[in-house]
Each structure stands twice: as C-alpha cells, then as structure tokens.
Amino acid sequence: MGNPKAFLTIPRQEAGYRPIHDRISDYSEVEQTLNSRDRKLQASRCMDCGVPFCHWACPLGNKQPEFQDALYKGKWEEAYKILNETNDFPEFTGRICPALCEKSCVLKLSMDSPVTIRENEAAIAEAAFREGYIKPRNIERNGRKVAIIGAGPAGLAAANQLNGKGYTVTVFDKNEAPGGLLRYGIPNFKLHKPIIDRRIRVMEEEGIHFKMNNDVDVRQLPEGFDAYCICTGAPTARDLPAPDAN
After folding, report:
1. What is the pLDDT of residues 173-189, one digit of tens each?
2. What's the CATH code of the domain at 223?
3. What three-state secondary structure class fits 222?
C-alpha cells in the first residue's frame, strides 16, 4: 500500500466518454482513458483493506489491492502479471465487466466513491499490449489433444488455460470468427472487435487452432482427440411466458 491516505485527498476520477461530436461519426468505443499519471493516482486510492470485499465479490477472484499497489508504483508489468494470474483476458473484462468489485469496495460502502478498479484493469491490459508484456509463449507439448466446442468467452479461456499446460488445442465454432457473444452480442461502442482479434492472434501464434464455420453436433464429436470441452454457452434467450410479452 503505497499511500495510505490517498483516499482522503484524491477524489474518484472517471475517464468519461468521448465528446458527442466525435462519437456520432463512428461505431468505435465511447469510453476514454486517463493519462498514466492520473491513472496511478486513482490506483493509489485503494486502501488495501484487511478484508478486501472487492476480492470476494469478483467472480474471477482478482487480486485488486495487489495490482492497484503495483500500478500506483508505476510497475505496469508487475500489475499485469498479478492480474493475469486470475484473469485470462483483462482487456475484455476491463471493458464489459459490471464491476462487482467496485460495488463492494469499502470506499463505495462508506463514501459512495469506490476505486476505479475496472478502468484501472483496462489500462493495465492496454499497457501490457502496448509495451510488449503480452507475447506468444513457447509451450512444451504433452502429446495430448483437446477439442473445445464453442469459441465464446468460456471456450477461449479454456483454450488458453489448456494450451498453457501443454495440450494441443483445437477450437470449433459455428460462427465465422471467434468470440461468441463478445463479438456477436456486445456492440462495438462497448467492445471494439479489433480488441478480440488482437488476442486471437496471440492465441494462434501460441499454437491454438481455430476451426470456424463448424456447427458441431455434441452427439457426434470430432474424432482424434483425447478430451472434449463443451463451451457452447446459452445463445437462446429465455422467453417470458406472460400475456403481451411481445
């Protein structure tokens, strides 16, 4: 914890949105980002609580106090390594996560002014790509093959984890490009699709194979694999059985 009193002297500062006259001319992301100095100041507001509710509330179990401290100290690569221990794709979650960590932040509960955890996470991920901290790994293969059915968030995360453990991974998906709802459900103004493509390129360079336009029947799985991981998600919405629901 670099600055134990920062939360008393530094107000919460969000990056905000691009000016309207800019964003009406394209479909790109509307959220802006702070400069490095202001971003580090926002990270300094983390109090490193004895009982970090943010850590408990995060579905991934991210270590928010630890990567906030590294960010505050300007240790961007260390911040990314801490974040990547629990999060395969912080560049996605830093944009689209509802930030349950912020809802449970002690500064939210006591002052209604939580640490900008989600924005800090996105900034760390972007710095990692920009500075070359994220690069293809040289992975020793264990001789086993795994087929993953579905190239959505779950399928991509499973592929990334299994590939890192030495399995030869092939991902099948019915769509023409990987991403699932990241690509086909979330609009560009929230998650620009080149962000997905950038990550897919890293995964391909690491040896993960993507076979798109393959609508696999889970009752007739492709042959030649030692294991299968079904990650088809829930693409069919649940109907509301009520009068005049339409």
Report:
1. 999 999 999 999 999 99
2. 3.40.50.720
3. coil
The domain of 107 spans 6-131
Using CA atoms, how far apart are residues 119 and 112, in angstroms rounded to an integer? 17
Euclidean distance between CA atoms 199 and 208, whole angstroms: 12
Q: Which residue has the higher pLDDT, 1 or 207?
A: 207
Q: Is residue 104 part of a domain?
A: yes
The predicted model scores a pTM of 0.92
138 domain-assigned: no
Asked whether residue 246 is domain-assigned, the answer is: no
Burial label for 171, CB within 10 Å (0-12, 13-18, 19+), is: buried
38-42: long-range contacts, CB 8 A cutoff, minimum separation 24: 38/13, 39/71, 39/119, 39/120, 39/123, 40/71, 40/72, 40/73, 40/74, 41/6, 41/10, 41/13, 41/72, 42/10, 42/12, 42/13, 42/115, 42/116, 42/119, 42/120
Distance CA 76, CA 221 (A): 43
User: What pLDDT shows up at residue 1?
Assistant: 63
pLDDT tens digits, one per residue of 145-184: 999 999 999 999 999 999 999 999 999 999 999 999 999 9
55 and 168 fall within a common domain: no
What is the per-residue pLDDT for 2?
65
